[in-house]
Each structure stands twice: as structure tokens, then as C-alpha cells.
Amino acid sequence: MEAATPRITLRPLAPGDEAELLRIHTTPEVRHWWDEPAEGFPWTDEPESTRLTIEVDGAIAGMIQFAEERDAKYRHAGIDLFLDPAVHGRGVGTEAVRRVVRHLVDDRGHHRITIDPAAANTAAIRAYEKAGFRRVGVMRRYERDTGGDGWHDGLLMELLADER
Q1: CA 17 to CA 118: how far, in whole Å?
Q2: According to the model, what pLDDT value does residue 148 have?
Q3: Which pLDDT band, with edges at 50, 70 and 90, does 3 fall under?
Q4: What CA dihedral angle connects 101, 39, 149 and 120, to 10 degrees?
Q5: What is the pTM of this model?
Q6: Taking a C-beta distance cutoff of 8 angstroms, is the pair 39, 45 a contact?
Q7: How far, in Å, CA of 112 to CA of 83, rounded?
Q8: pLDDT value at position 147?
Q9: How far apart (Å, rounded) are the C-alpha atoms in residues 56 and 3?
Q10: 41: Cβ–Cβ under 8 A, 6 or more apart, which residues?
Q11: β-pairing, 50-56 with 8-12?
């Protein structure tokens, strides 16, 4: 028997989302890649990003954000997200990314979207590839490890509007 396809909604971050997003952010599976939430999360820690709450079947399941480079010479957007481990492996991340890409290309006029998971985050990489992203290259010692003791590689991935 196949599992039912989850009903996924993306909506603007709203007052009242904080507690559940913090709970998800601090699960070991998410904290491993995202580290501890910064002061002001989810409202003031990344003011240049637009954040959306991801709901699955009416319940908060994570957050997706995008940031836009507005300089016409380099115009593009970048995406990042995290999901409650309870919904991992159900296609939620891939679908959320597809929807944000569609918005960034069709509504915001971007021709190129990037995402940069940790090179060891194979589940995220697989989800992004399903959404149409391609591997561009490894950024060596790109990001601090959780706790700040070392560095790990990041994988730069991109999707061009005319390749989706």
C-alpha cells in the first residue's frame, strides 16, 4: 500500500510559528546541519531573507527561505530550508523547493537559483537534484561544523530557469 501524498502549504512566517520552528530547528537531525538557532530566530537573525513556513497536512513541518541578489550584473537567488525529521523522505523538501523556484523564476524574474548543502548531506542533495538542481562544485571548508570546532565542505548546486 502506498503512503498518501502529503498536502504541502507554503505561507509567510507568522506570529505563533516560533515555538514549533524552534522545536524543529533544535532536533538533532536539523541542528547537525543548521547548528543552534541564532538570536532572534526566526524573525531578526537573517533580515535579508524571505522566510516561509512549510505546513504538511495543516501542521508546521519546517521553514524555507530565499535571498535575492539584486545587482543586475549578478542577479540570482539562493534557497535554504529545514524540515521536521518526522516528514523526511516523503518528498516535502523537493516539492517546497520546486514551488519556491517557480516563484523566484516566474514572479521575481530570476534566471539562476543556487543552494549550498553540506557536501555530506546526501539526503538534501538527492532532494535538490529531484527538484532540478545540478552540482556545480565543492566549496572546501565552506562552513563551520556544529559547535565551531572545525570546517566541512559545501556543495554548490544551481538551477537555471531554462533547464527546469
Answers
A1: 26
A2: 82
A3: low
A4: -20
A5: 0.93
A6: yes
A7: 24
A8: 82
A9: 14
A10: 18, 21, 22, 25
A11: antiparallel
